[in-house]
Amino acid sequence: MQNDKKIKSFKDLDVYQRTYKAAIVVMKKIIPKLPDNEKHDLKDQLSRSCKAIPRLIAEGYAKRHQKHGFQKYLDDAMAECNETVVSVSQCKDIYSKHIDIELCEELIDTYDISGRQLYRLEESCLRRVVDMVKV
C-alpha cells in the first residue's frame, strides 16, 4: 500500500487506526455477547489484549528515537495481536450461538494483517538504525 502522507503522530499510522477501530468493535460487539461465566477469563483477557495494541503503538511511537525503544513496543503489540487472534478464534469456536461468526473472521483477519504491519514497521525501524550506525 503506497501512502505519501507524512507521519506526524502515532494517529497517522495505519496499523494504529486499524487496531483502534478493531478494539472498539471487539468491546462493543463481541465481549458483551459472551456469557457471564467468561467474565474473569475470556472477556477479561480479550478486553485487555485488544485495547493494549493501539496503546503500545502510541507509547512506542513516543520512544521511536531510542535505539530499541519503538521495537520493544512493536514486539509487544505483535504479541497482543496474536493473543487477540486466539481469543477471538475461541469466541467464534466456543460461543458460535452467541457471536457473529463473520465478524469474528473479519477481526481475525484484521489482527493478522495488523501483526504483519507491525512486523514490517519494526523491520523498517531496524533498517534505519543500521543505516544511521553506518554513517
Automatic annotation (TrEMBL):
<dbReference type="InterPro" id="IPR012657">
    <property type="entry name" value="23S_rRNA-intervening_sequence"/>
</dbReference>
<dbReference type="Pfam" id="PF05635">
    <property type="entry name" value="23S_rRNA_IVP"/>
</dbReference>
<dbReference type="InterPro" id="IPR036583">
    <property type="entry name" value="23S_rRNA_IVS_sf"/>
</dbReference>
<protein>
    <recommendedName>
        <fullName>Four helix bundle protein</fullName>
    </recommendedName>
</protein>
